[in-house]
Structures are given as structure tokens and as C-alpha cells.
């Protein structure tokens, strides 16, 4: 009768590696510092009860923070006010003077001018439950051309805070840009 193949007893890989390690180290068993190699692998670092409790506490804190953050009410960011742009063939100083004059004529007062980034901003003008301010930026496109961007921010007072409202339409912005253009021509004429 032919011999049947029988599976061999499985050998533990760790025992096999441990035998090779004993041979390579060749440490005598009773030498100081010689360790006894156990039959099972040791983790690289044993965790104590304190470490696992700290990790569990940190995970619970993170989970509760995320849960609390998702339940709280976040205010919606203010909607971006409408910005309309126009290009002028004039010097930046003349444009700033023209915009300042037009805003004074419309009772916005004297705007704050930031010459570094060419930005003009008025204070809020309050009328009843409404308040309005104008923000203008001037950007250099070419040596002779400048792009002026206007944003008129209008807000209405609600029970507890100011709510932004879109009031101006494109035609009103065009009218405002027409006044600025006429004032630019006046400023250029006075300069000559």
C-alpha cells in the first residue's frame, strides 16, 4: 500500500526565529543581563493601565467635542455684498479725489483713505432702521488704466442685530460711476 502523505506538525515561526537568535547571540544563560527568551513574542512596548485610560479619555473628549460642535448653532457668514467695477483712464490720485468728492456730495462724509492698497471706506450713515456704507478699491491695470470697484453695503436693523440687504441695482451703480467719471474730468481740468 502506498504511503499517504501526512501533514507535518506546524512549527511555530517564533520558536524557529528564537533558535536562530540564541545561536547568534550566544549569551550564556547565567551571565548578567542575559535575558530569557519566552515562547511568545513581546510587544515593542507594554501599555500600563494609566496609558490606556489617558488615551480612552482623549478619544472620549474628542468625540464629545465634535458632537457638541455639531449641535451648536453657527451664524451664517454675512453674504458678500455686490461689487461692481469700472475702468478709468486716470491717475490714482485724481480718482481718489473724485470718489471722495462724490461720496461727500451724497452725504457719506469724508471716507478713510488707505493709500497703500488704494482703498476708500466711509463710516456707516444711519437713517432710521437702515445703515449704509461705501467701500471703493482702486487697482492698477496698466500704466494709465485703473479699475475702480464699488460696494455699497446696506443693512437693516432687526430685533437684535443688523441684517445685510441688497438694495442697489446695476442701474444705480452705473449712475454712481457716471458721477465719478464726471468728477474725474473736473479734477483733471482743475489740475491743468
Could you describe the 3D structure shown?
The protein is an alpha+beta fold. The protein is built from 4 helices and 7 strands, in the order ααβαββββββα. The longest helix has 23 residues, at 49-71. The N and C termini lie far apart (123 Å). The model is unreliable at 74-79 (pLDDT under 50).
CATH architecture tag of the domain at 84-191: 2-Layer Sandwich
- Give the full name of the CATH homologous superfamily of the domain at 84-191: Kinase associated domain 1, KA1
User: Span between N and C termini?
Assistant: 123 Å
Strand content: 15-25%
Average pLDDT number? 77
Number of strands: 7
Q: Work out the helicity level.
A: 25-40%
Task: Look at the structure and give the CATH class of the domain at 84-191.
Answer: Alpha Beta
Write the layout of secondary structure elements.
Elements: H1 13-25, H2 49-71, E1 84-89, H3 92-105, E2 112-114, E3 119-121, E4 125-127, E5 130-140, E6 145-157, E7 162-165, H4 170-191
Helix pairs in contact: 3-4
Quickly describe the structure:
The chain is α+β, with helices and mostly antiparallel strands and 192 residues long. The protein has helices spanning 13-25, 49-71, 92-105, 170-191, and strands spanning 84-89, 112-114, 119-121, 125-127, 130-140, 145-157, 162-165. The protein has a domain at 84-191: TATA-Binding Protein.
